[in-house]
Design a protein that fits this description.
single chain, 5 helices, 104 residues, YefM-like fold, three-stranded mixed beta sheet
């Protein structure tokens, strides 16, 4: 690709918030693509015209925080209290004869 085409791709990346770009063009114009994503845009990478990946910026929020913000889930009213695991009870006699009997 010559520099004219690079400028053209970069200009189109700047103009659009969401863009489909071929895998080869993405590889050849990685800096411009990353600049586009850093500025809040999103890229859909295609291979032979079929979408294969979506590239978007990373914000500081976790998936859990985004679900809470969207109203899909709520924060717990109280902290979760974990039950203590009961101690293991030793068997009175071997269990293997019971297992063999049940398999018949």
């Amino acid at each position: 690709m010559d520099t004219c085409c690079h400028a053209q791709v970069y200009a189109s990346l700047e103009e659009m918030s969401s863009l489909e770009i071929g895998a080869r063009d993405f590889r050849e114009n990685l800096r411009a693509a990353l600049a586009h994503v850093k500025s809040g845009g999103e890229l859909v990478i295609t291979e032979r015209g079929l979408p294969v990946a979506r590239v978007s910026g990373v914000d500081g929020a976790t998936a859990w925080d985004r679900l809470i913000e969207a109203g899909v889930v709520g924060k717990p009213a109280e902290p979760r209290v974990r039950a203590h695991a009961a101690s293991r009870v030793p068997p009175r006699k071997p269990v293997s004869p019971l297992v063999s009997e049940q398999r018949r």
